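Task: complex structure prediction.
Instruction: return structure tokens for all chains below.
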Amino acid sequence: MPPTTGSSVELLRGTLDLLILRTLLAGPTHGHAIAKHIQRTSEDLLKVETGSLYPALHRLETKSWISAAWEISDKGKRARVYRLTPRGRKQLVAEQSKWETFSHAMRLIVNPAGQEGQ
Amino acid sequence: MSAFWGKLRALFDRRRKEDDLRDEIQFHLDQESEDLELDGIAAGEARQAARRGLGNAAQVQEDARAVWTWTGLDQLLQDGRYGVRALAANKTFSVLAILSLALGIGANTAIYSFMDWLLVRSLPVANPESLVVLNWRAPGLSGRDSVMKSMSGSTWRDGDAGRMSGIFPYPAFELMRANSSAVFSSVFGYYPARRVNFMANGHAEMAAGEFVTGGYFPGLAVVPVAGRLIGPADDRAGAPPVAVLSFAYSQKRFGDAAKAPGQSIAINDVPFTVAGVTPPGFFGVDPAAAPDFYIPLHSGFLLQQKFGGGDSKVLLDPNYYWLEMMARLAPGVSLAQAQTALGPLFHRWAESTASRDVERARLPELRIREGAAGLDTLRRQYSKPLYVLLAMVALILAISCVNIANLLLARAAARRREIAVRLSIGAGRSRVVRQLLTESVLLSSLGGALGVLFAIWGIRTLTVLLANGGEDFTMNPTLNWNVMGVAAALSILTGVLFGLAPAIAATRVDVVGALKETRAGQTGRRSRRFSSGQILVTAQIGMSLVLLLAAGLFVRTLSNLQSVELGFNQDSILLFRMNARQAGHRDPEIFAFYRGLLKQFRAIPGVDQATLSHQPMLGEGTSSGPVLPPGKEPKPGKNPHILLTGPDFFAAFQIPLRLGRAFDERDRAGSPAVAIVNETYAKTYLDGGNPIGQRIKLQQRQRLFHGRDIEVAGVVGNARYGGLKGEHLDIVYLPFDQDTYHPVDEATFALRTGGDPLRHAAAVREIVRLADPRVPVTGIKTQTAQIDQMLNQEILFARLCSAFALLALLIACVGLYGTMSYSVERRTGEIGIRMALGARQGDVVWMVLRHAVGMGVAGLALGLPAAFLSSRFVKSFLFGVEPADQVTILVCAGILLAAVVLAGYIPARRASRIDPMRAVRSE
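Output:
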């Protein structure tokens, strides 16, 4: 698949966890809102596949990085709300620094210093 | 770790999780369509769009599930549940399959538990793995040209020309004990004391004992449950005579092991004191024998019993082999090291006992062998028959596996649509194979579980069959973890074995084609399924032939043995034995004692004749000695056979007199020595002229014999002595009280009766009790029962193998019947058309039957070479029939073909009754 398709970007493998954790840092919320938040914050560049979102949420839950509980949403419906656990918070820090190192390295290669700031 | 627990929890929490996920996704869809509606999209369309956005909902659930649990285990449980449902849906098939598997696995487990008992079990002592048994191996026979001048104990064939044994001269034991401290922490010896008179609390009984050296109990590291055991201090000349009892025997004679120590007993009329009792599980070192008591080797008793009080030089004779030895390896020493250290030592010693070069060329060589399981007497006796039985039951199991595979194959054909649906909605092929395999393993596990119950029953039955009333049968295997493990492994293995091929075949479907097919028109791949079914049925028929032939050979062996010309009349003879010498009777009073008893037995109403011999005619081997005319040499390696007999012997056994006279009142102690020989002896040694009046003599090599001149008084017909097989022996019958052979001790009495011999047993016991209560009567049985006991293995093989063959035939016929019915069902339309076009009923029957017979013949072609090959392995079990006996093979093939025709005829007849109109219309 090509790296970009029109207005959205294919998610890099392994980054979904970071995005979820980062989104939950703002406060507990349900799966749909997480997807929407990522989409909106990335100015619609990133579109989270529902097919991968829910398995990822459950994976993070079994790793105890996030916890889940059924709550009544603002519209009065039962929604499964996820929140960051202390372990998840630690994990987020680790993932984030990993990502920064990675993107810094990518930038160094893809945009060498000479061409920076053009 | 927490992920592990989470997954474990998820296993039990599954339903809630599934519901949660479904609700969650539903919530997501609702949210999404709401959002889209807000964007101004129509409600229905918004819902559709939301669904599209989600993708494959089932896939999402599957992915999430993979996160929660171990996929493999999860699928296994799922498959298991599905399998249970599938089995429950087809009860007849399941019950039949489980039953046949249970029979197969049960039979295998039962036989295996005997093998386990025989081959795997260790002696119940501390550190059995450091025990070793000392044996020797020598090329050729013992006797004249070897250092082994005389022997007492068993030897067995090793390879073509070699012989092995565990018996040594006493000086060799001393040699080992003195020179092995570097490799052995202890060396000990033992010698069986068979059937002695054991008197306790005024009551005499026959008991089996063992002479042991002082190192025996310390070496085996046995701890007494009461009193103390025999130690080195007890095992020397002049020590106070003590005995140790087995736990069971102490209970039998004294009620309680704790009461036994200190009790006074008499063994063969010699006083002993009970010192202690061995623990309950202890049975000595030979699983074939369980001694009731143990006494020290040097008690003086041995000398007296074995050599009638002769001098100890005989005992110390370096050319007399009798004492068995075991040892315990010193810590850190291997068996090979011990062999290297002691082999040359024994060689040098044995060389020093040789006096001629021919003896030096065939010296026995020491062989140290593992002793953890004790002596291998039983292993030598039973391992081969058990292997044969195991092969037979394994074949039965294979046949039932093939049968189930065949049934599964037919069922898989019926499930083609189901499987095609599963494959078409995305199930991987391996996933479907695994699911089908789970079903078959489930089936075989249920069969295995039921089979264990069969095994418990089978073990009991087989124990009874193998023992067949034998007094000293010691094998009593039970189910243990080892055996259960084998049963479990066998169950899973058979499940995979019969499930794999049908599962693979079932998933090899053309999905589109299978889905399009209607029920009636599955013609496309019929030929292929049919042919794999055919192959399986053919294999079954082949395997059945192997079992049938084995059964045929064993049945013929048994009937050959049972129709062996005995030379005497076995009917209505009562046998029993007693040993008056052990109870204190001595020469010459013992003759009068036995004669007095005979007179009383003869007076019992219904008893026609009463006689005795020093050993039974059949079942206990033979006695022999160089009793020959002057100047004659015995046939190479074979002395003439001798039987000491009482009065009326030939009349009682109805052995016909050919020449001269039978023994009568003239022939007693003190009168001129006479003998009666059989025809073979007369022909072999008394050539030339009339045998009557010729003189023979027991040529004296051992001083025990008295070397009197004996006159041949008569010649009798040949009769079986020792065993049923082989040529007739040359036999010299001697009166028991003329002092021409061994002094008589134990005697086997024989009463010829009218009617059932056993009804005189009580009278016999009473007469002996009144004559001398110290003399126990043992081994009361009819001559016929005794011969049956000799033929025990042959009877067992003939019966078991016939049953196995019948079972195999039945299973194969069910398989054939199933295949043929299936094929007829499939060809209903075709047959209908044929009949509509003018085929007669007979044609249709033949058409179907031809198929069955074709498979039968193919099975025979397959089975014959296999049967030929395998029957060679049972050659040593056969008598009077060759492994490739043509008559047996023809009969077996005939039986098999008849069964095949029968199994094929029922579907064939059904095919011929098809109503053409209905058959064609239904197409």
